[in-house]
């Protein structure tokens, strides 16, 4: 694995030290479905929201691998999985898209807000009838002079209820064509944009999600991220980052969960022996470790390949499959190992299973990842 | 085989095996006419990057660069010398 230097370790320590405070009260917030604004302010104060972004716009200029390493520390130390998800969504949805594809003017205006967290970021991709099949989207952006006029709706917008900035993927050409999608940066208070109420969900409840509605919403043409028709490529780039950055947080969570299970299995006795002495229990914990280390290897190897400018289209799909499914298996094993306590809400163990179930669904379902791998090998 | 012919051969082999080369015009819109879909576009970009040693994740590119055989050839032509000059290859 990678030999991290002192500076990288110090950044991670900053995040880890903060994590316990960020996660305090996570069980109660999960039950209430509340985003923790005070925790957000704590993260803002560290400057870590600008971790991978250009220092010219308030970022810390860290590379992808360092960003992942620090965020893995967030997952290991902060028990609020929904909050962790909101942090990664904020960074990748707007910041990563702007940094790679934004014009100089867009970067100057919006990246500082992303870096200091004064405006929370979100992206709007999915529609009620176009989930994994994004080419079937119906939200249109019609050119009218120097503005685009948006009409339609988006569903499953993570951070939607709390966001100040949205990258909205719209149809600007022939439906079905990969050259017909345009990514537009939309401010929350833009007339014609209506933000729906938070939608109740199974897990990641502290990361609010909603629908967005566009009714003749006029957005400057200059807010196109990456140019007209480039939305699919913007999204492909953002999804690579989303998978690496968001799922490395999961490996931090898996590490914490694994250690909790080891500790529990060494102290919890049944029939006069620690339950860890029974192979039916220890095998589950070993499988948790194998899943964790396999996930980390895929994540960091794929990121290193991306940094080396190699094509990672297949690797990223494999990584997403491996990590998201290993996380579900790990969370399920933790519930089983903790028995009745794992099933009770007050210990926060069942919550992690509910959170993990989102993984094989968002950022492209497991089924779509397999389809993508099949296409890349020519099937 | 010229670069244009090589690109056309790849497109036909991978996305339209029933079409003969003479029937695919150099400027035929591969994207809007459904020859290359979204996953196909990623495969096409990956192939161009590997075949011509272009760091496609680093350069500015749009779907228009891959809209036709002619556009792809132009994209390759315009990036090979630039990248070599900048030492990015």
Automatic annotation (TrEMBL), chain A:
Q: Which cofactor does it need?
A: FAD
Q: Supply the PROSITE patterns for this chain.
A: ACYL_COA_DH_1, ACYL_COA_DH_2
**Residue ranges of every copy of the Acyl-CoA oxidase/dehydrogenase middle domain listed in the record:** 122-217
Top-rank taxon, per record = Bacteria
Q: Which Pfam families does UniProt cross-reference here? A: Acyl-CoA_dh_1, Acyl-CoA_dh_M, Acyl-CoA_dh_N
Q: Where is the Acyl-CoA dehydrogenase/oxidase C-terminal domain?
A: 229-376
Boundaries of each Acyl-CoA dehydrogenase/oxidase N-terminal domain copy?
5-117
Under the heading Gene3D superfamilies, the entry gives: Acyl-CoA dehydrogenase/oxidase, N-terminal domain, Butyryl-CoA Dehydrogenase, subunit A, domain 2, Butyryl-CoA Dehydrogenase, subunit A, domain 3
Q: Which family does it belong to?
A: Belongs to the acyl-CoA dehydrogenase family.
- The protein in question is named Acyl-CoA dehydrogenase family protein
Source species: Actinokineospora xionganensis
From TrEMBL, chain B:
The Carrier domain covers: 1-80
This protein's source sits in the domain of life called Bacteria
| Species assigned in the record | Actinokineospora xionganensis
- State the InterPro entries in the record: ACP-like_sf (IPR036736), PP-bd_ACP (IPR009081)
Kindly provide the name given to this protein in its UniProt entry: Acyl carrier protein
PROSITE patterns attached to this UniProt entry: CARRIER
């Amino acid at each position: 694995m990678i030999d991290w230097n002192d500076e990288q370790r110090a950044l991670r320590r900053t995040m880890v030290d903060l994590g316990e405070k960020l996660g305090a009260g996570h069980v109660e917030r999960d039950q209430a479905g509340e985003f923790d604004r005070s925790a957000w302010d704590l993260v803002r104060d560290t400057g870590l929201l600008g971790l991978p972004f250009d220092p010219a716009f308030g970022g810390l200029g860290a590379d992808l691998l360092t960003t992942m390493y620090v965020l893995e520390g967030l997952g290991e130390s902060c028990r609020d999985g929904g909050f962790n998800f909101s942090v990664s969504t904020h960074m990748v949805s707007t910041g990563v898209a702007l940094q790679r594809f934004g014009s100089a003017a867009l970067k100057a205006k919006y990246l500082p807000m992303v870096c200091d967290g004064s405006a929370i970021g979100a992206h709007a991709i999915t529609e009620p009838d176009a989930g994994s099949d994004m080419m079937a989207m119906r939200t249109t952006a019609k050119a009218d002079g120097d503005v685009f006029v948006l009409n339609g709706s988006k569903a499953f917008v993570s951070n939607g209820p709390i966001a100040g900035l949205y990258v909205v993927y719209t149809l600007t050409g022939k439906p079905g064509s990969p050259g017909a999608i345009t990514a537009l940066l939309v401010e929350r208070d833009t007339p014609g944009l209506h933000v729906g109420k938070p939608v109740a969900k199974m897990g990641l409840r502290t990361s609010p999600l909603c629908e967005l509605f566009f009714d003749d919403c006029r957005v400057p043409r200059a807010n196109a991220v990456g140019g007209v028709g480039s939305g699919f490529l913007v999204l492909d780039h953002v999804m690579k980052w989303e998978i690496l950055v968001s799922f490395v947080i999961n490996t931090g969570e898996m590490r914490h969960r694994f250690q909790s299970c080891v500790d529990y299995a060494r102290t919890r006795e049944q029939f006069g022996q620690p339950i860890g002495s029974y192979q039916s229990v220890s095998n589950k914990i070993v499988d948790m470790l194998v899943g964790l280390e396999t996930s980390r290897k895929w994540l960091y190897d794929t990121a290193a390949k991306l940094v080396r400018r190699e094509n990672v289209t297949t690797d990223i799909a494999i990584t997403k499959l491996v990590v998201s499914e290993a996380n579900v298996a790990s969370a399920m094993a933790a519930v089983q190992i903790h028995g009745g306590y794992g099933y009770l809400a007050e210990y926060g163990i069942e919550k992690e299973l509910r959170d993990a179930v989102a993984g094989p669904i968002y950022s492209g379902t497991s089924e779509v990842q397999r389809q993508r791998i099949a296409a890349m090998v020519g099937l | 085989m010229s670069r244009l012919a090589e690109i056309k051969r790849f497109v036909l082999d991978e996305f339209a095996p029933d079409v003969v080369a003479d029937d695919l015009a150099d400027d035929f819109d591969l994207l809007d006419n459904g020859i290359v879909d979204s996953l196909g576009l990623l495969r096409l970009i990956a192939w161009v990057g590997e075949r011509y040693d272009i760091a496609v994740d680093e350069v500015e590119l749009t779907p228009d660069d891959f809209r036709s055989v002619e556009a792809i050839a132009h994209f390759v032509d315009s990036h090979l010398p630039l990248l070599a000059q900048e030492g990015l290859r």
